[in-house]
Amino acid sequence: MSQRQILQDGYVERVVHEGLKYVNITWKHPVRWDVAVTGSWDNWQTREALQLQTPPHVYGIFKALKTSLYHYRYIVGGYHTHAPEFSWALDDSGCPYNILDLRDFIPEMVATLGDTECPPSPPWSYDNMPFNDK
Fold first, then answer.
1. What local confidence, expressed as pLDDT, does residue 80 receive?
2. 85 exposed, middle or buried (CB, 10 Å; 0-12, 13-18, 19+)?
3. Looking at the domain assignment, is residue 1 inside a domain?
4. List of residues 6+ apart from 46 with CB closer than 8 A
5. 68 to each of 19, 40, 65, how far by Cα in Å?
6. How far from chain centre, in Å, is Cα 134?
7. Which residue range(s) make up the domain with 30?
8. Taking Cα atoms as reference points, which of 49, 37, 50 lies closest to residue 97?
9. When comparing pLDDT for 77 and 112, which is higher?
10. Which of 47, 54, 56, 68 has minimal CB crowding within 10 Å?
11. Residue at 85 is within a domain
12. Contacts from 49-52 at CB under 8 Å and sequence distance 24+?
């Protein structure tokens, strides 16, 4: 087996085990400048340019991210901003950021389903007539 094959298999295994999710981060507002995004997925280290996806003004970027909760900001015309149509909050300085929640949601009720019993049949569903032996 070649080193390349080992690396490819290792990558596939890592992708499966890390629980990556693919997301499209979009900006849907008219702009005269380039649009970029930065976020907590890499500790705010990089700015990634969004590409025009649907003219005249829908920009986006596809990302593969681990299952987690992320904060991110758009950079439009050199200024940090947020998209108010998506989940957002304010940081300690009062600056808005968007929230991307990729965590798997498992309702609490699912955990208790094994402990429940089926409800009894309603009394009217029985006719109390003996079976006929024919």
1. 96
2. exposed
3. no
4. 38
5. 9, 10, 8
6. 61
7. 20-107
8. 37
9. 77
10. 56
11. yes
12. 50/25, 50/26, 50/74
CATH number (domain holding residue 102) = 2.60.40.10
| Predicted structure pTM score | 0.65
- Give the residue among 52, 61, 55 at the shortest CA–CA distance from 34: 52
Tokens describing residue 11: 């990558």
Taking the CA atoms of residue 69, residue 75, residue 76 and residue 78 in that order, the dihedral angle to the nearest 10 degrees is: 160
CA distances for 112 relative to 60, 108, 115, 121, angstroms: 40, 7, 5, 22
Query: What pLDDT digit, counting tens, does each position of 62-97 carry?
Result: 999 999 999 999 999 999 999 999 999 999 999 999
